[in-house]
Design brief:
Two copies of one chain form a homodimer. By secondary structure, chain A is an alpha/beta fold. Helices cover 50% and strands 11% of the residues of chain A. In chain A, a hairpin with a 5-residue loop joins strand 7 and strand 8. In chain A, helix 12 runs parallel beside helix 13 (355-368). At the A-B interface, helix 1, helix 13, helix 14, helix 15 and helix 17 of A face helix 1, helix 13, helix 14, helix 15 and helix 17 of B. Chains A, B: Its cofactor is Zn(2+).
């Protein structure tokens, strides 16, 4: 027996370093020996609470939640998530930077709707008179009209409604038929048109291709409300304020510049891209001033924009946008952080289709003396060797600064190595990936593969207005509860990476990191004092 | 423009080797330059048919199939799969070896049921009188009884039935109440108890934990039918015959030796493990002779056994099985290929729990002059850093010859590298993983990560009697249609790996490979002649 025990001791002595070696690339382990006693204690406490909640709130029967488990489908599980202590802890956690969010899907749909209801001149139309039978598919389109075009059409839901004609918003709302729920029914109809519900994601539209149809349709409704100058500026303000309240200290949204103008309050579509940037800059400064005034100046470092357009353009059309982007960068060097092509990668054009203008773009930047890194969406797919999957090769060969989604990156050993070695961070959007059916729950998400391979990762929310994952607390929650290996120190490393791989300049990064570390220490204290 | 085109040419010239490098570890690429013209043509043809079927049969509306797509949930998609040309092609393909299948779940449930109906002396019992309300959960248990214990209880479904009392099989069947479907209803009830249906996998039991409960329950019903000497030998025969018909030339099933005896035709539970092996050996030889007689001798190389017991034993109990395994290996050196611990990894004991007896097992083998490699199940889990996930470390440190499932292996860079370098093949069971809810469809299976990392892989069916994926054609189908990168050459490499990493000796492997290559060439011819 003595010799057996020696054999076991020898085995265990070899086992520990083997496991350690396998985990040695994880970015939190680079500074593992620097972890404070408090961080270690808080980490252990959070693991205990997580285990406890997995056995209690996630094991109980819940009405309307057939199979509850930690990391489950977000739209169904949200009502359980918000009951947990772990979610309370995530809400308090400082998050660093938000690096992947589409501006026009960052603000709660109800908030946008309130803004719209206060804005004069907005009209609405549908493709056929609204009825109970077509309510789910007959989506509202909004437009602010100049006074010369204002109408007095009384209702969208009357059978006499002429399809496609513009009805004043308040007429449509006030006269919405009682069978469809009256005013409240109208509000619900509009909000549903701008969000994805569980029945859609997990039932009627339960494939990547189908849910993308629903996803895209939400923008048809919201764009007519957001692309109005006075609403747009309030929308940005709310995005910044709500991000700050969730512990985010810097944001780098993608703005879609496809439309060359937005509407003014007068209903004229003549507000140009440079005016959008002036507006953005003004609101950022106002929110900064507001935070200073509250004595919370350090909590908001700022915001930059990733210039985006859609990957259905022709290469010739794209040229216009590339020149537009260069011109804006020259006028607003602090605001333009990078360039991206967005839209459904699987249905639209791959990067290689645009190789000529994209290579020219780099040349033109040299000529103009500007630096606008690519920050490409790539590999947001279940495909293996498809054009969408292969966008990863082109994103990296074109020198992308980060990769948006990179869902299929883990399939590519050379690319994983390249990302680790060159410091190309992946903008991982856990809840977005799940609702868009790339993964059935957080348990099957490839994030652990990236983390164990030492690829830098920033967690991101993508389109929280559509998905309901406002801020970053929900995304951090899903990541934390879906892995035993992941702890508070992992989340801290993710937040630090979001700062390190942002487009802030070195001075801004230092400021941001200093704020983050102070907030992080406060956070650990509060976890230990409130949840022990 | 001229310089732009040069820039594009330079880009493309750098792109091709970059992609090639990323794919260079794929095992089919080791011999890519040896591919015959026929293989290249057949590969291209299969890709065209696959693309065509993705756009036709997989795009059509199918009654009862809500969201058809290639690689979808197997139990729902099977009715579409069998309509495709790709499935016809897969059925013709030579498969090499089957390296991961639990013997008592390898034969079609209907076939087993037919055997049982012909066997005198079998009785059946349930925990409460059968009714429409409890039919799905009140599972039948079977036992062959010695004539002294035979009963004449008339029915299972009569309210006068005493729970737990044994009813002669034919009484139970003939008297099955007409409200429950009579004889046919009884057959359906028994078959349903031994298989998983789509509503269970994708509805009522749609989590790993829940579907495992159903999965385990199927063995409660089937074990009482299989563990009867005359049925067991016919069961083995059918397993071998149906494998051969599917193009499998060698099998290496896991046999569960937990029960120390099985029943004889006389209803005595006294057939010992060594008698099981004698029976197995006899049937293998009979099937070989049968194949020789048909002039198809080369199509069946043979079979070996992986000795398995269940991971709920105590370490002290395990000792008995390890010694039993050694004794059997000494008596039947050609039959015992390895040792494994089976059962739900997440609910039962991790390998580390058995470290003392497992290390002692290695010592005892040296003393006895035998070599019984471990061939462990490990990492059949969605966990990240859980005990089940960590079984992978112990499997590898203990020198496992292959890894059963290894579903979570892709999370571990060091282990992936070790498997590639040391030639530890992974027994990947695509359909099993999907039905047991580790992946929602083949599109989210980690197999492409293993392939691109050069890890040797053998495709396996695991428990086809329960899942309905008889043979390997269905598993190969799911793999082929879920990836654009995967082609016939990939499948050929998988089949060759199944031979190379089997427990055949070198002489057997050479014979098997020679047969395989001949069959492969015939297969390519038939693809080109029948499907072009």
């Amino acid at each position: 027996m003595a010799s057996q025990s020696a054999a076991v001791s020898d085995y265990l002595a070899a086992r520990a370093p083997f496991i350690e070696q396998d985990r040695s690339l994880r970015r939190e382990n680079r500074t593992a020996n620097l972890r404070s006693t408090k961080e270690i204690e808080a980490d252990q406490l959070v693991r205990r609470i997580r285990a406890q909640e997995a056995d209690t709130v996630w094991k109980e029967e819940h009405e309307d939640v057939a199979h509850p488990f930690p990391g489950m489908e977000f739209l169904t599980g949200k009502k359980i998530i918000i009951q947990t202590k772990i979610f309370q802890i995530m809400s308090k956690m400082p998050k660093g930077a938000l690096l992947h969010a589409h501006l026009d899907a960052t603000v709660n749909a109800e908030f946008l709707w309130d803004l719209a209801l206060k804005q004069p001149g907005i009209h609405v139309r549908v493709a056929q008179p609204l009825s109970a039978a077509n309510l789910a598919t007959n989506l509202p389109e909004f437009r602010i009209l100049p006074s010369s075009l204002h109408t007095d059409i009384p209702s969208l839901s009357d059978t006499s409604y002429t399809p496609g004609s513009w009805v004043p918003l308040h007429n449509a709302r006030d006269s919405f038929s009682t069978e469809l729920g009256g005013t409240e029914g109208f509000d619900k109809y509009v909000i549903s048109s701008m969000t994805i519900n569980p029945a859609e994601a997990y039932g009627t539209h339960n494939t990547v291709e189908k849910i993308w149809q629903k996803f895209i349709s939400t923008f048809i409704t919201s764009t007519g409300l957001i692309r109005i100058e006075p609403i747009f500026s309030e929308y940005i303000r709310q995005f910044l304020r709500s991000s700050i309240e969730d512990g985010i200290l810097y944001v780098e949204p993608r703005i879609n510049f496809l439309y060359k103008n937005m509407w003014g309050a007068d209903g004229q579509e003549n507000i140009s891209h440079r005016e959008w940037l002036i507006m953005f800059d003004r609101v950022v400064k106002e929110v900064k001033a507001e935070m200073e005034q509250k004595g919370r100046g350090g909590e908001f470092i700022g915001a930059k924009i990733i210039y985006s357009t859609i990957r259905f353009l022709t290469p010739a059309e794209l040229d216009w946008y590339l020149e537009d982007c260069i011109a804006l960068k020259k006028e607003f060097p602090q605001l333009i952080a990078g360039f991206d092509l967005v839209g459904d990668e699987a249905q639209l054009r791959p990067l290689i289709y645009y190789i000529e203008p994209l290579l020219k773009f780099r040349e033109r930047q040299k000529e103009e003396g500007v630096d606008i890194p690519f920050i490409f969406h790539a590999g947001e797919t279940l495909g293996d060797g498809t054009e969408t999957d292969m966008n990863l090769y082109d994103a990296i060969l074109l020198g992308t600064k980060r990769i948006g989604h990179g869902f299929s990156l883990v399939k590519h050993p050379k690319l994983v190595e390249t990302c680790r070695q060159k410091g190309i961070a992946v903008e991982v959007c856990p809840i977005s990936n799940e609702i868009l059916r790339l993964t059935s729950s957080m348990l099957t998400h490839p994030l652990p593969v990236l983390l164990n391979n030492g690829v830098p990762v920033a967690l991101c929310s993508d389109d929280p207005a559509v998905f309901g994952n406002m801020g970053l607390s929900f995304d951090y929650y899903q990541v934390l509860v879906a892995s035993e290996l992941t702890g508070l120190s992992t989340l801290g490393a993710l937040a630090r990476d979001s700062i390190e791989f942002s487009s802030m300049d070195e001075r801004e990064k230092s400021a941001a990191l200093a704020v983050f570390e102070r907030k992080w220490a406060e956070f650990l204290n509060s976890v230990l004092s409130e949840f022990a």
